[in-house]
């Protein structure tokens, strides 16, 4: 037991609940309390002394076998309090409270479960969404209980205020107590690191420059210096303004260039004057929130060997309104090849910045991307830290005088040249991709390695024929062998299809009778394969463009890549698979599920190759030696569901990256041959496999490094 107050409140006397803590977080046993089917409000009061990166995740456990349940969509209501109102599952066993951030334990001070009466629920529903509440009452009055409950649940989950502004008020606003706590914490530190803020300046509007300077002065962390280099501004008000700030604050030092050298030279001059161990980059028209450098200093103290630190960011308009937040992934080398997702806030170890030569003149507009590509090339990702907090406000107003605005005509060429220099030594090539992002084209050796395509199947010859026609007739790849793993096909159409390929050396049929076990069928196919690259492919996948397999193979051959996944579309053109996000629905779910296939996705994610924690086994390529080294699919405990996620997590555990690419796009007629989980037996098996995944990968499922902890775990659509 732990010293956390937990109370069940309802009609009659209150009841104290016992809270247990284990390696995965907190558990409140709810079996036998009569809560099954009841409507409740669960309120979590966070401990004020808890770390700011604590992000509690509540889930309802409905099985004794499961360690975690399906996450509930609780919302922050301010002052460290979050709450959820809804109907408890009939088979409720426990309430779980875990932390999304790196497995750190949650620190609540109080947990309250309050039974809600029907009048109270209806009143709450009317206060949040009157229209939905009216429909709930209407259908309930007609005796349509299920429909009425559905509208009631929607009304209770509706937020009277939504969007980013509401999130800022609930989750990104420091009160006086939090500011005092931060000040006290910093005062107790021994040898706090000095952070040098580098600011190149050239003719910004005095108002925005003043805002930028004051944002540094307002930092709760006092151990900083501001190194300003005036890059020969022509507006006489600029040097006067800088001189006044420098005279008033000895931490601000100003130098002036005799001639305009553009952002690279001005920043390098500022870095040459830096005395701090780390340098933070701030444009002359942007701003830092008051806790930015404090969060950076905490990261440095936690890991003094860091080389690169970066944070989430948003934009700010002329009136100071914040919008368009970018909640980023942890370090993603593949995504950095395509776009500079790291800026801003960027903080670099000073000696590392100088060692790579600083910013390079001639790359204006993409000078930061060029720096980050060179800095991270061969850098151990353990020395890179992403802080999942908005620590930079990027001014988006036109005419603000940003260097990137003035250099926009050269930005794309500079970005492509920067990537070319990194990848050319091993034969890579940078091309312009969709939306102007980089596309990295990797070489394939000559002769190309054989690819063994492994297709488990049971009848449905009309689907398999489409897949085979696409492989043999519409795929531009020289050496393919297809291993069809036949699981008790009985239909004459299937026998006829196999007969058509009887004399074709490119296709072999391996008979594996018995109950359907996708993992076992795939392992049997891999054992029969002769290729050095394996491609696991469902029998309901349709080829729609010729270069897809070359793309997958070129990435699968990269030594530190363990598996590669494709972009899969439904027949209606919407996204079926954009990579796998851990934690969605309790275990994992697909990214961007159901969005238009041509949509760019969250900050262009669906247009560029990037890393993921897992990819679907419906189209998964990997080297045969990697597959063998990690032991293949788990045919014992994960016969149907999540075996691909489990495989990818073991591949990542072995030190490899998983990559998803949009440049291999296919159509997936999902589960048409196997059907849905629509029988009690299938549902029981699915629940067992959920329990296996949660027991085996609990901490990883709560903290997908490629999906920001500020985003909702209810779906993989990158929403708050």
TrEMBL record:
It comes from Methylobacterium cerastii. This is Glycosyltransferase 2-like domain-containing protein. SUPFAM superfamilies: Nucleotide-diphospho-sugar transferases. Residues 196-354, 452-574 form the Glycosyltransferase 2-like domain.
